[in-house]
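Box 3.1. Reading complex inputs
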Amino acid sequence: GEDVEQSLFLSVREGDSSVINCTYTDSSSTYLYWYKQEPGAGLQLLTYIFSNMDMKQDQRLTVLLNKKDKHLSLRIADTQTGDSAIYFCAESTEAGNMLTFGGGTRLMVKP
Amino acid sequence: EAGVAQSPRYKIIEKRQSVAFWCNPISGHATLYWYQQILGQGPKLLIQFQNNGVVDDSQLPKDRFSAERLKGVDSTLKIQPAKLEDSAVYLCASSLGGQRAQYFGPGTRLLVL
């Protein structure tokens, strides 16, 4: 079955850039997503990218997709303490279909 | 625009008891999902509805879990009887049919003792 993997933990200093990485195995993945989860809260959709794109930028967020290597990354510029959360990568294979999530990367931002 | 609503937010029960969770999706969203998120893991899909029909329930433990969406809007997820390993956060999400983005509610945190 599909598998999505992420590193467990990332620590950065406030103002630095953060890069969170994700790898997936399903070559038929069509859409790839990044969600943010703060303690005790649900998942907040940050951004998503279609598999025919290799980059998407949205304010401080940049998503890079290497479809050949099945590697997705999320770069957060000028990371703030409010960005501290767990970030989940997820993939789906067709519109409206189930999401397969990675285990999440806990981002800690130090002042 | 109101987001996905879920209740209760927290529930503590003893094993073998029953419990039910409620979800109200974003207005107009035809597709509704229930996910189970065990502590330290990513969410896993339990069931997907399109309007009031089930699209995918292959991961739902049907011997104890049931879900319905009778009028194609609100949905309930029930566990009967609960086991210790059912302790998790139960997340409801919705999306416009044919659109990819799923929007999540705050979740119901279940603890089975």
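In summary: Chain A touches chain B at residues 4, 31, 33, 35, 40-45, 48, 88, 90, 92, 95-99, 101-104 (CB under 8 Å).
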